[in-house]
Amino acid sequence: MSHRGTSHHATALRLLVLCFMCLVALCAWPHAASAITRAEVLARGERWIAAKTPYSQSRFALVDGSLVATNIANPSRFGYRTDCSGFVSMSLGLTDRAGRPLSLSTATLDDVMRRITKDELLPGDVILRPNNLVIDGKRVAYGHAVIFAGWVDAARTRYVAYHQSSGQRGAVRNEVSWGVSGFWSEKGFAPYRCMLVSERGKIGTASGE
């Protein structure tokens, strides 16, 4: 084969590999199987809370909160990871292009979100600190993500959070003081809005509103 023919073959092979990589990325890109409402986001989170789904970074659970059996190959195809970012992914109804559950991490959740202000927060939004965040030249000690479920008081000093808590060993509903930057008192937590959530049937912003 001539040098020119070899060059064309290599170019064609590179294009084929590039197309394959683009296809893989497209299939993995998160989306909601259908537009999910804020009420549905909360209802999905409440199922894991009711089921007391235990915290784990290696186990997976169905939307009803029941754990996927450990002897099943590729359990991530059937359920969501039972850590904080998996819980938020489940609540938001994230799936891949094949319709399978997709569990993002605290470092990748913001790929489907945009930053908002505290005043814009609505039930079904997310309070997030990415685990790859660098503050004052240092990477944060841990990332965390919670579903914002509404303000407790009209002054907006406390809110209800749905989340998977490693400290409390499972899915819980907590009342949280707003603190310095959004969750407890650590820096780096901020409010986000998932771009895949429909604003149809918007829920009020505070208790009693």
Structure explained in plain terms:
- The structure is a single chain.
- With about 210 residues, the chain is an alpha+beta fold.
- The protein has one domain: Alpha-Beta Complex (endopeptidase fold (from Nostoc punctiforme)), CATH 3.90.1720.
- It is about 25% helix and about 25% strand.
- The chain has three helices and twelve strands; from the N terminus they run αβαββαβββββββββ.
- Strands 5-12-6-9-10-11 form a six-stranded antiparallel sheet. A two-stranded antiparallel ribbon has the order 1-4. A two-stranded antiparallel sheet has the order 2-3.
- A hairpin with a 2-residue loop joins β7 (about 135) and β8.
- α2 (about 40-50) crosses α3 (about 85-90).
- The longest helix is centred in the first third of the chain and has 26 residues, at about 5-30.
- The chain starts with a helix and ends in a 15-residue tail after the last strand.
- Residues about 15-30 and about 205-209 have low confidence and may be disordered.
